[in-house]
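Agenda item 2: guanine complex prediction
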Amino acid sequence: MALDNLIDGRAIAEQIHGETAQRVAALKARGIQPGLMFVRVGEDPASKVYVGMKEKTSARLGIHSQTTVLPETTTENELLALIEQLNADNNVHGILVQAPLPKHISETKIYSTVLPQKDVDGFHPVNVGKLMLGDTSGFLPCTPAGVHELLIRSNVSISGAEVVILGRGNIVGKPMAAILIQKHKNANATVTVCHSQSRHIAEHCRRADIIVAALGSAEFVKADMVKPGAVVMDVGVNRIADPTAKSGSRLVGDVDFANVQPIAGKITPNPGGVGPMTIALLMQNTVRAAELATK
Ligand code: GUN
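Presented output:
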C-alpha cells in the first residue's frame, strides 16, 4: 500500500529557499550581498560533505560564501584569531564554524567568540539565552528550528501536544525542547526529553503525539514505541555496515523507517526530511543577519 504520510523536507526547504531568494534580491537592490563564512578544521568526512552542501546552496541563492579550511593541528588561539578577523569584517554577515572541532579546541570558547549578531548557528550563549527567555530577536539553531518549521508547514498541531524528544544535545535536543515549550501559538507543547540515563523510554514514546528522534542511534525508534497516528521526526544520521551497498555502508536515521511509516500519522523520510531544512534555516538566518546589519 502506498502511504501518503511523508513530510517532504526537500519540497518544504525549496519553499523557504524561494522566500530567502526574494530577500536576497531585495538586499541586492540596495547594493548588499549577504556574506557567509564557513570554517572547517581538519578533514572529518561528514563535515566536508555538510559544508560542501551549504556552499552550493549559498551560491544558488545568491549568498556570497567562502570556506577557510584549517589543519587538524590548528591551535585554539589561531582559530580564535580567525574568528576575530571575520567578526571585524563588515562584508561578513554570518560565521559558521563546523562541528566537531579537534579535541584540543574548546567548542564553547569558539562559539562564544563569534559575535552574537553573526552567529547564524544560534550557538552563542546570548542566542541560547534569548531562546530560553522567549526573546525572538536572537538566532535559533538551524536543525531544531527546521524541525519546528516542518511541523508548522505540515499543519501538525503542536499546542498542547505530548512531545517526546530523544536526545539532549546542545545542537538539537535541548534547543528543540526550548522552542516547543514557548508560550506561542505554534508551540505550547508538553515536552519530555529522554536521554541515555532515562528509564522507560519506550513507554514515554508510546504516549507521544510527536516524537523527535535526535539521539544518534541507528533505527532506535521501533514500531512498538510509536502510538498509531503519531508524528515522527527523524534527525539522526548514522552510518551502518551494509555488505550489499557499493561502499560497504549506508546512512540510516534514528527511526526504523520501514516499520514505523505504516503506523505513523506523518513521518520524515531520511534522507530528504530534516536534513534539507537545516540548510534552509541556515540560509534564512544568514539573510536575516545581513538585513539586521544593514537596516
Ligand atoms: N555539526 C553538526 N551540526 C552542525 C550545525 O548545525 N552547525 C555546525 N556549525 N556544525 C554542526
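Discussion summary: The mean pLDDT is 97.
Owner for follow-up: CH.
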